[in-house]
Amino acid sequence: MANLKYWIWLASNSLLNPAKVVMLIDTFGGPEQVANADRKVLESLGWLSAGEISSLMRRDFGGAERILQDCVNKQISILTIQDAAYPERLRNIPDPPAVLYYKGRLPDFDAMVTIAVVGTRSCTNEGCRIAEKLSTELSRNGAYVVSGIAKGIDSAAHVGALKAGCGTSALLGCGCDVVYPAENRKLYEQVSRVGALISEYPPGTRPFGSNFPRRNRIMSGISKGVLVVQAGKRSGALITARLALEQGRDVFAVPGAFGAPESMGTNLLIRDSAAKLVTCVNDILCEYEPLLTHVSTQRFAVHDTGEKWRGGQSRPEPETESVTEQKESEKRIKVDREKIKDFTERQLDIILSIAESPRTAEDLTESLSLEARELLSELTMLQLMGAVKQEGALYAPVREFFEKKRDA
Q: pTM to 2 decimals?
């Protein structure tokens, strides 16, 4: 906790841009060492202005201590660029944030095909429908949708992922405790339950207009690709698309009607070959098919290709398999992937948790960090589907459900 004070102090310095903050950390090894550096040492670097050096020499940690206490009170977690959980994709952009604040459960963005779905706030009803539909289909096919939880396309993207029963995360241009827009309070709560609200701004930071273009580099930075659905010529979504291109990310765009102001930006992206034209979700999924297959295999093993429940290794040929290995192979479930394609992420987590041996609801509640009522609701649904059975106090997968083909 004491060390976090220095991280917050350095990252909150309004005179230093994110790139310089990271350069200081790389040069000195950490923010505490920066705080203890002599003026002459800072001057010798040659890339700090006199004002920046003076701001560092003031060493006023009161504000950082208040922010740290605020995070504790509001259950907001802090992630630094030196933490193992910090996304590697984001770490490698030119100006990564040294500190991220988040509320909820931070996903492993690097392990997923993360797609940022963005667009204009003043979208049409059709634009919202398209964003929601594509986000639902992306989520159901193994991608992870992120957006900015603003009005319009962003909100539709989160709603689409939630409808698929999957996780989604929001990148904010304000503090994690500030709901903006106010009418999205319920959506904020839903997103924080299944994913995370993420910001480089400390709690209490208001949604100033200048925060959002800066926020956009994080959204594209954690993603494999950016999908733009409706954007005018001056839409902030085009900033995200430009940053994505600079960061080497894929950019996709949904075309709009000729002359439609809300689609001028997306049409220009397509015209200039800056974005791949999207007519259906497969136009995006086909770019990541090997990765999506790997993610699916890692999350939920075994399907009819002979891969194991855990680890995704190929099953040995029968003649090289020991008797013990053969017995273990017989115990593993060969999953018909068609059966699980509509499972929610939470349902997959439950099945994966009981795959090796039956478990009690209490065990599952603790290991999956779910509220008891949420878990019991999912278990009831899985039992109704015929995927899970209850044996006394224990829950186990129904082998026949996963291995038997659906009736024609």
A: 0.73
